[in-house]
Amino acid sequence: MKKKLNIFCVLILLLMAAQVVMTFVTGADAFMEGWEKGSEEGIAHTWSALFGFFVKLFAVVAAFVSFISFFRFILNVNHNKVFVWENVHLLRLTAYGLMILAAVAAGDELYSGCSFTEVYDHFFDAFLFGTFNLIISEVFAIGLKLQEEQDLTI
């Protein structure tokens, strides 16, 4: 049973890493286009450009925190610490990081003029995976509360 859980966790970790990498790969063309356009026109320091930079940096940090949290969750499962409160917090961090990444990237794409269907194709799966992680973390939390109540009964 532990072997199956480890295989599934590693598979999800690989899919999550692929999603994050593909998010940045698909944005690399737009980055290069903006970089070339900015170098041709000169550097314009505006508040909106600075704000956009910090929002995108926040999305990158959220993706990194999400990835590290899920990796720590897998390590906990490997060390036979499955139903512990730490895993609930790690799964919630994973979920919030993915949802923040998806929301910021989708907002940026919509702001830059992409259609809603393109944004849906690129970022809906990350948002869905984040929502799924929130559901799983709540299931873990309910199970842990039930276990605590059972331990208190005589």
Q: How would you describe this structure to a colleague?
A:
The chain is an all-alpha fold and 154 residues long. It has one domain. The chain contains four helices and no strands. The two termini are 31 Å apart. The mean pLDDT is 84.
State the helix count: 4
The whole-number mean of residue pLDDT values reads 84
Helix/strand class = mainly alpha
Strand content: under 5%
Radius of gyration: 19 Å
Estimate the helix proportion, in percent.
Answer: over 70%
Counting structural domains, the number is 1
For the sheet with most strands, the description reads: none
Low-confidence segments: none
SSE order in H/E notation? HHHH
Q: Multimeric state of these chains? A: single chain
Overall shape:
elongated
Distance between the termini: 31 Å
- Quantity of strands, as a count: 0
Brief summary of the model shown:
The chain has one domain (2-152). 88% of the residues lie in helices and 0% in strands. It is built from 4 helices and no strands.
Topology:
Layout: H1 2-41, H2 47-78, H3 85-111, H4 116-152
Helix pairs in contact: 1-2, 2-3, 3-4
What attributes does this structure have?
single chain; mainly alpha; 154 residues
